[in-house]
Design goal:
Helices cover 25% and strands 10% of the residues. By secondary structure, it is an alpha+beta fold.
């Protein structure tokens, strides 16, 4: 299995994982108010899409195509991966993934709704720098 990563909304920084030469970039996965608004803080990202114990791809699926989800983590994750890599679907998502660096979050106490768009996929996969 390969690594998964994104870029932060605040500076476009790669979310590096703990195995990379950079070490893990502490980040916050911002959550929409419609889904509780409780942001997920991850200090030591392992590189596989899990933030604060929750799979980002499963969350993406559950927030956007809940009717296709079963609650099974692996099943929902695969749906999230599929929609995140299908441009015509991904660009139309109501609730895309939005990450910010922890330092930015601590300074600004921002919310999901403070941003537009989505966090881009990181071409370095959070590891290959």
């Amino acid at each position: 299995m390969g690594y998964f990563s994104w870029k932060t909304m605040d500076q476009g920084k790669s979310i590096s994982n703990q195995h990379s030469s950079r070490g893990a970039l502490p980040v916050v996965l911002l959550m929409p108010e419609e889904f509780g608004g409780e942001n997920l803080i991850e200090n030591n990202y392992e590189g596989y899409g899990v933030f604060a114990g929750l799979d980002a791809y499963a969350l993406l699926a559950r927030m956007n195509v809940s009717e296709e989800c079963t609650g099974d983590e692996d099943h929902d994750r695969m749906i999230g991966i599929k929609i995140s890599h299908t441009n015509e679907i991904f660009e139309q998502l109501e609730y895309p993934l939005r990450f910010v660096s922890l330092s930015y979050y601590n300074q600004n106490k921002c919310a999901y709704e403070d941003f537009e768009g989505f966090s881009l996929n990181c071409e370095a996969q959070g590891y290959f720098y």
